[in-house]
């Protein structure tokens, strides 16, 4: 009888150990699933923000094109290598008032949003030669416009740039692009 009780206690201890082991494995599997779902959601949000930023950059380039179409003199009146902000309801370009700030602080897109939209011009850019040689005369060089949309999220490293993600569109405009009146 004594041997029977001893074997029963060993089996009870072994069963308890098996239950604890199965419980631990279950917790590890659930944790892995949760981490996978969290990572997937984070990547989905990043992709959504990147697509929005690309749309805002295209919209910004369309606004720059409208400014160019309104008159070459107006277009070239924007200073080279100066950051201009495009806000949520652009009537024109607004110079970035404090270089320490970004356009997201001055004119976030959409209003109260996480995106910063900035435009810079380089007039008479060697990258905008009509013959693609970069060696054309200054008077035939076009103007390069760069629209940059930046944003921040939880993937940005701490202590780095507050806006660590960006989408940039660069294009050249020239006075020759305007329709000539007959």
Task: Describe what you observe in this structure.
The chain is α+β, with helices and mostly antiparallel strands and 182 residues long. The protein has one domain (2-177). The chain has three helices and five strands. The chain has a five-stranded antiparallel beta sheet with strand order 2-1-3-4-5. It is elongated. The mean pLDDT is 80.
SSE topology:
Blueprint: H1 2-70, H2 72-76, E1 84-85, E2 94-95, H3 103-106, E3 115-122, E4 143-151, E5 165-173
Short descriptors:
182 residues; alpha+beta; five-stranded antiparallel β-sheet; 3 helices; 5 strands
User: Gyration radius, to the nearest Å?
Assistant: 30 Å
**Between the first and last Cα atoms, what is the distance in angstroms?**
116 Å
Beta-strand portion reads: 15-25%
- Total strands: the figure is 5
Average pLDDT rating = 80
Structural category: alpha+beta
What composes the largest sheet?
5 strands, antiparallel
**Helical element count?**
3
User: In which order are the strands of the major sheet placed?
Assistant: 2-1-3-4-5
- Can you write the helix and strand succession as a string? HHEEHEEE
Total domain units: 1
Globally, the shape reads elongated
Q: Which residues form runs of ≥5 with pLDDT under 50?
A: none
Helix content: 40-55%
